[in-house]
Amino acid sequence: MAYLPLADQEQELHHPHSWVTKYVWSQDHKVIAIQYGGTAIAVGCVALVLSLLMRMQLGFPESFDFMDPNSYYQSVTMHGMIMVVYLLTALFLGGFGNYLIPLMVGARDMVFPFLNMLSYWVYLLSVLILMASFFVDGGPTGAGWTLYPPQAAMAGTPGHDMGIILMLVSLVVFIVAFTMGGLNYVTTVLQGRCRGLTMMRLPLSVWGIFVATILGLFAFPALLVSAIMMIFDTLLGTSFFMPAVIESGTPLDHNGGSPILFQHLFWFFGHPEVYIVALPAFGLVSDVLSTHARKNIFGYRMMVWAIIAIGGLSFVVWAHHMYVSGMHPYFGFFFATTTLIIAVPTALKVYNWVLTLWEGNIRLNAPMYFAIGFIFTFIHGGLTGLFLGNVVIDLPLSDTYFVVAHFHMVMGVSPVLVLFAALYHWYPKITGRMFHSGMAKLHFWCTFLGTYAIYLPMHYLGFLGVPRRYYALGTTDFIPQSAQDLNTAITIAALFVGTSQLLFFINIFWSLRNGKKAGGNPWGSASLEWQTPDTPPIHGNWGDELPTVYRWAYDYSVPGAHEDFISQNTPESAEPTVDEQHFDPDIDQPLADV
Amino acid sequence: MSFIKNIAVKPWERKGIIGGLRPVGTFDTAPEKVALVFFLVVASVVFSLFTVSYIIRMELPDWRPLSDPAQLWLNTGLLVISSILLQWARTIVQTEARKHLISAFIGGGVFAILFIAGQMNTWQDLQATGNYINANPATSFFFLLTGLHALHLLGGLWVWSKSSIRLIAGSKPEEIKLSIELCTLYWHFLLIVWLAMFAMLANT
């Protein structure tokens, strides 16, 4: 039976009737996106404060009463898990995925708006469960964000009773929320596109979010499976992961479980998770760079292929997180090889970003600052990844600050810079107002230089052999006083960066009322989300008629065109051209045809 | 290889509407079905990872094989009948007929409920003979896998009950066709998962 394409169906929209259905129980993807984004940023602030507390302890040991070894480990664990799962995953996919997919594919809403709403509320529930662990006896778990058994469930690890249970339950609930959202994103991209919008005409943002969602749908089950089995081990006394073990002199009831099995399952989720965060970031930054360079993205097809290749490869590299757990040398060789291979499509993307800037008509707007900053931090973080991907180099460095520096550059600073680039870039569409440009640029310089001041010295600390995960370094022969001083300097930089994020919050809240009216398309962007009849777009997005797409999303600086961009919904016949006498084809070659 | 062909095109070269009414790359089916197929893939990944864990855990020395309760054969039969009845309902609704539709569709669900009741009975029997969930990894996995499967079936029964109410309330076959089709697909999937799991549990 032939189904009417979604774009031609009169989709029933649940138009809100009251304030509650409009802003609270809303089924509008844009409101849900803001709910997702607001919750993610709020919980991210908790994680940020935890990191500052940890840094204060490391920079000025024995100066503060609020931090003891237990609370230090609890802070490490909660900081890591919140940042990776509850902030980055939720903000990129739940926030930007929700806001941008329907607008960029020319749909009125997600395919299943009710499920979308449910996804947010279940996500909120998972956040509340996680936050509740701060208030239970024993506090949140301090097992490290990897939650390795058996230590996660044993006395000696803070939060080994209620904390770990709440963490695992919260993760299970999060995965349920993600699955509901993820099925929606994938189906909307596949089935909800408007007329003329082929997959290869999609902006790279949609490609990144689309492939990352598929990765999430395949990878989160591994976390689900390990979380369920660990809940059973902790609550019901099974021995899936728990080996025979003695706790404070008393043998526990567990027998014969395999902690290594947990590690494999965890990292089978954990490594794709890196790309669940990175791929949307790659997509969003591509669109920001192209728009503000007034140039089509270099190598669009290669960018799409690279996203798909990275997505596939990300499932065969997981054990490079487990070199120090021990494995057969051939396995080590295999995982080192796949890890180095994944650098190829990733490097290809970096080259293409740089080549997009090459001879572009670059406009140094605030989003562009963050996007170019991302290229720097991502190259640094990516290159140290090549070091750590090799077994023999990883072994001595694995438990040092080198690893902390590596993953914070590649997985922390880089995606966060893209988040800011994207938040500033789409802020005018979301709110209808421009932000304060000067304040945003100041925010960039504080964040960019500040994070370098934090993480560059950490590489050096790592080479010195300063171990990570330590609550205090104490006095040892191999850690010189200079390393202690460096730690103090890093802490000061971290406090500076943390505080400077206030600039962002002041800016976005101040601009809500006081920003200049943005108009529909302030950046002169070609993709569909900027062509809505209303800004901010109203429920239903497109007025009476859905858009029709006639071209790809990157027609910038097309020679002969009247403006320096042609929007995706401009028909070929209506393409505005300048008087041919003023157009010299020898000077302006169409870039795409060269 | 249309996927490869699709991602090999040069989007900057061709302007104008491509693909007529339907954008290239959409599936000629209801979005609900696309989402369900994706969900089934996700559920398959979950069950596969449990299977891998089962096989790895089985290799460790403390594994004591469980003698499988005979009742599982009866339960399997109930689930097979349930699937057959739903398939029958699907065949009826495709011809847009109504005769036997209610009995086939509702019967399918009832047999699924009987299957779950049978599984619960199995769990009670196991516990009565001292095979508690934490007795041995084999028993732990038995409870875990069968419980998870039953939970999936309960999710299906929730959708089935909503569709049944619509059917009894007099919905026309064409209005309920999609629901019946999706329920049937889901039921067949859960039958295949159960058969695979039963084969694994019975042979190890």
Write the layout of secondary structure elements.
The complex is a heterodimer of chains A (594) and B (204).
Chain A lengths: L18 H6 L4 H31 L9 H36 L8 H20 L29 H30 L12 H33 L9 E2 L2 E2 L7 H35 L6 H14 L15 H29 L8 H24 L1 H7 L3 H31 L5 H28 L16 H34 L80
Antiparallel strand pairs in A: 1-2
Helix pairs in contact in A: 2-3, 2-4, 2-14, 3-5, 3-6, 3-7, 3-12, 4-5, 5-6, 6-7, 6-8, 7-9, 7-10, 7-12, 8-9, 9-10, 10-12, 10-13, 12-13, 13-14
Chain B lengths: L1 H6 L23 H28 L12 H24 L6 H28 L8 H32 L4 H31 L1
Helix pairs in contact in B: 2-5, 2-6, 3-4, 3-6, 4-5, 5-6
Describe the structure.
The complex is a heterodimer of chains A (594) and B (204). Chain A has helices spanning 19-24, 29-59, 69-104, 113-132, 162-191, 204-236, 259-293, 300-313, 329-357, 366-389, 391-397, 401-431, 437-464, 481-514; strands at residues 246-247, 250-251. With 594 residues, chain A is mostly helical. In chain A, strands 1-2 form a two-stranded antiparallel ribbon. In chain A, strand 1 and strand 2 (250-251) form a beta hairpin. Chain B has one domain: Four Helix Bundle (Hemerythrin (Met), subunit A). Chain B has six helices and no strands. Chain B has helices at residues 2-7, 31-58, 71-94, 101-128, 137-168, 173-203.
